[in-house]
Design goal:
The chain has twelve helices and eight strands. The chain is of the alpha/beta class. It starts with 10 loop residues before the first strand and ends in a 9-residue tail after the last helix. The protein has a single domain, classed as Aldolase class I (TIM Barrel).
Length: 306
């Protein structure tokens, strides 16, 4: 592992959507176009095949095709990571090796899917994946969605593995940011993984933000990060308060459909999701459309800050 790689792991990393044709087949050219646009709009990194990317709805072959297509279009311009969300440890290790062969920059690894792991099982899974590859690893801690909370004591054990270098913290408890630094100093790069507490997390020392709604408003997301990193919190709060109603969409079960629908309304992609997910309908669809219309109508002029 190149130790310089992870120095670039800071800033706004959208967890990107995976684009599908109307028949729900993988649309790699559309996905590549979306990634290229996000990079031109200033994001600092890309994460494919995360929750927003419908990882668990993709076959093993499709995941590898997606990563290869992303690697081709990103072309080293920003760090490229892939989510690792598999039902068995062996499948996760196999996928990690495949990603390393393709040549991406790192992995965002979850505990094993479907089964609610105990702490020692989660540690064993994450350790095995890390040891199967030379790629740097970000531990994805999301107890709200995946019902396993990687505790501080567990992180202490994982700290013994050199290529486990970062944490995506999605506990929805900003105290965990401070606890990670108090316990481990700067052993881990800390990313916020919950859109509607990202500013608070950045103010507490997180150096990155993995975001869903950045897919819809990338320039505004980058502006919030830039202002926060410069200590310009008063200005960041003004922009944050505009964005917050939309950021709430990242915290509900239909977050993928909400983000894809918003992307479509902004001319940034298709709302097609893969079943069992279905596109938004009824009151929920109207609510998201209303939120987006309000945001567009009151969209701030970024030039006054940057």
């Amino acid at each position: 592992m190149n130790p310089l790689q992870t120095k670039l792991w800071r800033g706004v990393f959208p967890a990107v959507t995976t684009q599908f044709h109307a028949d729900q087949s993988l649309d790699l050219p559309a996905t590549q176009q979306m990634l290229d646009r996000l990079i031109h709009e200033g994001v600092h990194g890309i994460i494919v095949a995360g929750t927003v990317g419908e990882n668990m709805s993709l076959s093993a072959t499709e995941k590898r095709q997606l990563v290869a297509a992303a690697h081709e279009v990103v072309a080293g311009r920003v760090p490229l990571l892939s989510g690792v969300a598999e039902t068995t440890t062996q499948a996760a290790c196999d996928y990690a090796k495949a990603c390393e062969t393709i040549g991406i920059d790192g992995l965002m690894v979850l505990p094993g899917m479907v089964y609610k792991s105990q702490q020692h099982e989660a540690i064993a899974h994450l350790s095995a994946v890390a040891r199967s590859t030379g790629l740097p690893i970000m531990v994805y801690n999301n107890p709200v969605s995946y019902h396993v909370d990687i505790s501080l004591d567990s992180m202490a054990q994982l700290a013994q593995i050199p290529n486990i270098v970062a944490v995506k913290e999605s506990t929805e408890d900003t105290r965990r940011i401070s606890e990670l630094y108090s316990r481990f100093d700067h052993r881990f790069t800390v990313f916020s993984g919950v859109d509607d507490i990202a500013l608070e997390s950045l103010m507490l020392g997180a150096t990155g933000w993995i975001s869903g709604l950045t897919n819809v408003f990338p320039k505004e997301s980058v502006a919030i990060y830039t202002l926060a990193s410069q200590g310009r919190y008063h200005e960041a709060r003004e922009l944050w308060r505009w964005f917050l109603p939309l950021l709430r969409l990242d915290t509900i079960p239909t977050l993928v459909q909400c983000i894809k629908f918003a992307e479509m309304l902004m001319g940034r992609g298709s709302e097609t999701v893969r079943a069992p997910r279905l596109p938004l309908s009824g009151d929920e669809r109207q609510r998201v459309q209303s939120l987006l219309e309000t945001a567009v109508a009151s969209r701030p002029d970024l030039s006054k800050w940057l």
